[in-house]
Amino acid sequence: MTVNVSPESLPALVLNADYRPLSYYPLSLWSWQDAIKAVCLDRVNIVSEYDRVIHSPSFEMKLPSVVSLKSYVKPARHPAFTRFNVFLRDRFQCQYCGSREDLTFDHVIPRSLGGRTTWDNVVAACAPCNLKKGNKLPAQINMHPWQKPFHPTVHDLHNNGRAFPPNYLHESWMDYLYWDTELEP
After folding, report:
1. pLDDT at 93
2. How far apart are alpha carbons 133 and 115 in whole angstroms?
3. Taking the CB of residue 54, how many other CB atoms lie within 10 A of it?
4. pLDDT tens digit sequence for 3-39
5. Contact between 143 and 125 (Cβ < 8 Å)
6. What is the pTM assigned to this prediction?
7. Of 45, 50, 48, 49, which is closest to residue 16 (Cα–Cα)?
8. In whole angstroms, what is the distance from residue 61 CA to residue 84 CA?
9. Do 60 and 6 form a contact (C-beta atoms < 8 A)?
10. How many CA atoms lie within 13 Å of 37's alpha carbon, on the beta-carbon side?
11. In terms of C-beta density within 10 A (0-12 exposed, 13-18 middle, 19 or more buried), how is residue 57 classed?
């Protein structure tokens, strides 16, 4: 019996030219359309394929499950400041109470008091703690983050990210992912 799987549920893992994922967090995935386009433009090599075939009047091919770039892209040395990366640095946990629900981010030194939106001033906070702290300094309300905010390295985020693997990992990707092994610093 053949199961008809939608192409939308079959993303391609994107590897750099050295066969390492472009990104682990979030995992570098392309839609099937982007993967096919990159193949047709000769920008990637197909490393592995799904059993699913797509057709057009003049074209037929298996959907790629893993592709590698033909040109090496130098990885960022310092992670971008994003909401996701702040949450990942703080292990998806409120830095005031430990809750994992309803996360936002909090400016330790409030913006109204000159605090900036930087790695060294922002922490993950649940909405109730963020509301409770308001525009007060930690000492004023006796709410201190468990961990002092810091600018993480890519290695820090990789280490934290191993505790939060993606919900879906296709078997053809496993040789290229290192969820349980030590990553290089």
Report:
1. 96
2. 14
3. 15
4. 566 777 899 999 999 998 888 777 889 999 999 999 9
5. no
6. 0.69
7. 45
8. 35
9. no
10. 5
11. exposed
pLDDT beyond 90 at 1: no
Cα 184 to Cα 43, 80, 110, distances in angstroms: 27, 19, 36
pLDDT tens, residue by residue, 141-167: 999 999 999 999 988 988 888 777 777
User: What does the block give as tokens for 140?
Assistant: 């004023």
Let me know: does 131 contact 102? Beta carbons within 8 Å: no
What's the alpha-carbon Rg for the chain, to the nearest Å?
21
Rounded (5°) CA angle 100-104-109: 120
Q: Is 104 helix (H, G, I), strand (E, B) or coil?
A: strand
pLDDT score of 52: 92
Any residues with CB less than 8 A from the CB of 11 and at least 6 apart, and which? 29, 30, 31, 32, 35
CB-based contacts of 136, cutoff 8 Å, min separation 6: 110, 143
